[in-house]
């Protein structure tokens, strides 16, 4: 098998230096996955300084100001949908045993990237096929220089198989000892979710089985073998490899994982794993090509070409890679978590990020994946109904933080109870899918979600005796205003999604599907549509919430003394909550999602008002501002904000996982922002109003719209759309 190739500067993310401060960031950036199985970019041999079995109690906290426990390195193996129950954090994704382990000794010196003498180090992730390469020269204590080359990928078309390969070449005869293992001593956010663990070694194989505290069984098996060396492992021990000067020895490792979430108890056995592993071994040489082919297909649909801006091109490739890696259209029982399954922050939960930031990318490039994300919400409707019931409301209340059942998993009541806009976001996701695909049958299949969320609003809205209707006590997208009345974004979204619901009901009737909305509920829905307020101040600024203009004005420069850290760390929460300080776009989400909501003059006025108060402490913020600036024709400001979004994960930002909403946002920054594509729920036709940054000579991408695929090429603000 030969998948060693030269890194390409537009398609590879490269680490050229070992640096203790950036190790964890690269682990996130170098995450690989098949949708089904996800792994972080840890070293095969681990780091002695970072034991993986450290236990600590992670407390629920405000995510912006908490200082999570940061081990030096964090192994991460995740199968979306395999979750455990944490006593304080509720349900979280489980970090599974690490089957990547390959421990290496050379003449009794243990390889460790911190302590060994490593020269010519480089590690590079090829975004085209998801292959991670690492190479370096190891200057051993015993005087040999060993060239080590590591390669690995998660097979996209056999998604529970991981392929690893290592080549050793020494300048003199020496002995190396290698041990392949599965590390079961791993924790998730410092917690042990395994109630049973077993491990055994048979010949060159390692077998493990763990049972999680949510009763899922996960079985893993790995096998190590060599193509050019007679390699036998002594069950659980190191295997000797005698290296002859200048002769390369290649060692391969195949790993396979299965769970009782996917298979019956009977099917999920070591026999099945063994069969799978041996059939993969037989076609070992074609595994890479099969994987690369899948990636080529995915890239053909979603590739964005930016001529004239290598930095943006590479960063955009990086974002799209992670979106594709994290997605799995074959499993609609999970969505994509906030950290893109590349780390444990946000506990593997699904947020409004799904509908607002992720679905658009998939919907316009690969609608099958968008469909599965929408189906996830249909599948979790019962959980959403339970959430509503707990509070005594009718209908369904989608969880602010969802895991696999739809029951609320956010450990902080402020967000769980108040960030109710999620219900309207979910409804928009469904309507958006319908408008972009024209799939009426699927809309009818989703109708219960629209109906049940609508029923919730009829209870959650307050109908006053004087005829006023308010939605009070909410948190809008700006999480620095945790309890407010009539949040503009929430109200705008509720009104629009209720209108869509009534339209959807009519469509459902065509298919003889009737709904159980009562007369009273229908009349309340109509009243909300008519009367839910959007309030402006005297200068015509749309107020984020009632009384926003009376909130305290802050001297940001005085308070925020180190802008490399989030603003939220410099102010008490109590003061933050009653001040004009925004975590992220809130009112401005309206003109971003609804181009027709305001004229350009009103958008400018609102932009100028809110921008000065916005801290962008959330990674979901800059890109929205970039999109609005692009629409206003201020491409310079749009480009600056776009570049800020590009840098969020490229650096140390990905240490706890990839900011996957921002990745989807970046695609939107290009297509919705600079290319000015109109949303399908506002425009029946595919239309563009481009404003490219002056640095970009040409922009090209593919778009799916109502069942057809188009190639779009924009140069000198001339748009050519060709059906493909
Ligand atoms: C943001 C939310 C977002 C969440 C997950 C928070 O910091 O304020 O809008 O949904 O992160 O990405």
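^ structure tokens above, recovered residues below v
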């Amino acid at each position: 098998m030969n998948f060693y190739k030269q890194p390409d500067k537009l398609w590879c993310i490269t680490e050229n230096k070992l640096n203790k401060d950036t190790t964890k960031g690269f682990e996130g950036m170098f995450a690989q996955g098949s949708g089904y199985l996800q792994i972080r970019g840890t070293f095969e041999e681990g780091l002695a300084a970072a034991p993986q079995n450290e236990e600590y109690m992670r407390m629920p906290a405000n995510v912006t100001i908490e200082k999570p426990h940061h081990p030096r390195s964090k192994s991460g193996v995740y199968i979306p949908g395999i979750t455990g129950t944490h006593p304080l954090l509720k349900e979280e994704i489980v970090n599974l045993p690490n089957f990547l382990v390959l421990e290496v000794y050379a003449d009794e010196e243990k390889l460790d990237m911190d302590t060994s003498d490593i020269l010519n180090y480089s590690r590079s992730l090829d975004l085209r096929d998801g292959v991670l390469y690492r190479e370096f020269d190891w200057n051993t204590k015993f005087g040999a220089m060993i060239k080590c080359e590591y390669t690995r990928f998660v097979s996209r078309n056999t998604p529970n198989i991981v392929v690893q390969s290592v080549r050793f070449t020494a300048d003199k005869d020496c002995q190396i000892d290698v041990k392949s293992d599965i590390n079961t001593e791993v924790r998730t956010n410092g917690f042990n979710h395994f109630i049973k663990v077993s491990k055994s070694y048979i010949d060159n194989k390692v077998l493990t089985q763990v049972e999680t505290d949510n009763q899922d069984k996960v079985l893993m098996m790995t096998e190590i073998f060599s193509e050019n060396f007679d390699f036998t492992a002594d069950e659980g021990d190191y295997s000797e490899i005698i290296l002859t000067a200048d002769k390369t020895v290649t060692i391969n490792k195949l790993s396979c994982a299965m769970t009782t979430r996917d298979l019956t108890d009977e099917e999920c056995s070591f026999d099945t794993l063994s069969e799978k592993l041996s059939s993969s071994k037989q076609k070992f040489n074609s595994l890479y090509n099969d994987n690369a082919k899948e990636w080529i297909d995915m890239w053909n649909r979603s590739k964005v070409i930016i001529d004239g801006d290598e930095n943006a091109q590479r960063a955009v490739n990086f974002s799209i890679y992670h979106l594709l890696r994290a997605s799995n259209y074959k499993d609609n029982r999970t969505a994509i978590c906030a950290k893109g399954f590349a780390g444990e922050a946000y506990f593997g939960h699904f947020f409004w990020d799904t509908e607002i930031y992720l679905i658009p990318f998939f919907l316009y490039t690969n609608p099958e994946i968008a469909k599965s994300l929408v189906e996830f919400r249909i599948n979790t409707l019962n959980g959403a109904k339970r959430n509503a019931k707990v509070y005594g409301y009718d209908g369904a209340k989608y969880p602010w933080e969802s895991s696999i059942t739809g029951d609320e998993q956010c450990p902080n009541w402020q967000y769980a109870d108040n960030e109710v806009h999620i219900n309207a976001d979910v409804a928009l996701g469904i309507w958006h899918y319908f408008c972009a695909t024209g799939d009426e049958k699927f809309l009818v299949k989703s109708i219960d979600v629209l109906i049940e969320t609508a029923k919730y609003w009829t209870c959650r809205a307050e109908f006053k005796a004087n005829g006023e209707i308010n939605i009070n006590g909410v948190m809008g997208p700006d999480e620095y205003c945790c309890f407010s009345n009539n949040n503009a974004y929430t109200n705008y979204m509720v009104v629009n999604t209720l209108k869509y619901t009534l339209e959807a009901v009519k469509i459902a009737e065509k298919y003889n599907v009737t709904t159980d909305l009562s007369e009273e509920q229908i009349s309340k829905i109509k009243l909300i549509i008519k009367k839910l307020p959007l309030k402006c101040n005297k200068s015509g600024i749309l107020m984020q919430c009632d009384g926003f203009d009376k909130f305290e004005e802050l001297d940001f420069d005085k308070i925020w003394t180190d802008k490399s850290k989030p603003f939220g760390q410099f102010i008490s929460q109590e003061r933050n909550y009653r001040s004009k300080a925004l975590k992220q776009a809130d009112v401005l989400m309206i003109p971003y999602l609804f181009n027709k909501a305001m004229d350009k003059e009103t958008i400018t006025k609102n932009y100028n008002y809110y921008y000065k108060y916005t801290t962008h402490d959330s990674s979901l913020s800059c890109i929205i501002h970039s999109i609005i600036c692009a629409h206003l024709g201020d491409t310079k400001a749009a480009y600056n904000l776009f570049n800020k979004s590009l840098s969020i994960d490229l650096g140390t930002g990905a240490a706890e996982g990839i900011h996957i909403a921002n990745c989807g946002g970046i695609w939107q920054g290009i297509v919705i922002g600079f290319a000015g594509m109109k949303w399908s729920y506002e425009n029946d036709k595919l239309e563009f109003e481009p404003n490219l940054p002056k640095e970009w000579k040409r922009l090209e991408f593919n778009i799916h719209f109502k069942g057809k695929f188009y190639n779009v090429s924009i140069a000198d603000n001339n748009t050519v759309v060709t059906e493909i």
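The mean pLDDT is 96.
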